[in-house]
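The records we work with from here on pair a chain with its fold. Each token is a code from a learned vocabulary of local backbone shapes. A record is reproduced here so that you can trace the correspondence yourselves:

_____
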Amino acid sequence: MGTPVVGVLALQGGVAEHLAALERSGARARPVRRAEELDGLHGIVLPGGESTTMSRLLDVFELHEPLREKLAGGLPAYGSCAGMIMLSGAVCDGGDGAAAPAVRPLGALDVSVRRNAFGRQVDSFETDLEFAGIDGQVHAVFIRAPWVDKIGDGVSVLAVVPEGPDVSERSEAAGRIVAVQQGAVLATAFHPELVAGDERVHRYFVQIVRAR
């Protein structure tokens, strides 16, 4: 493959940061707002943002079913934070773990994800973690982040929250799953697009796209 074309769902969230990171990672990046803009893509990124809003806008722009069909057909995808929630198979809310009916996930990953799992905006934190397939530690920015509660067969765990003083004060944070891969679908609970000068996660995804 020459230069892969990777779309970024551009309805809401950190679109510009992902577009720039993908370009620096060797892809030709373009925003996606309409169903016809899915055609010709070799991969797609679902950015961070607010999952309830993102889910609603996918319906408003008549993108939910076309995107779901593309993913079911094997389109490589990467989701960060809210993007991880949207790629999941099931979503529950933090706290009591009740189902989140306002979010209609796309079912591209056989995982169950808990929204706002680490707490509110004031509980946002940063830490360094080991990421399978990437040399050296990855600096991870967690903002009202989810974590993965359950994984199905065929899902690989790429990163968990480490023990350490820079982890959220919530005692259950350490050890939680925050990066997974299933085939050509990648997801992280954190925001690598916000770490200036480090495109390793995006380069990892572009490699997935090239391999596909």
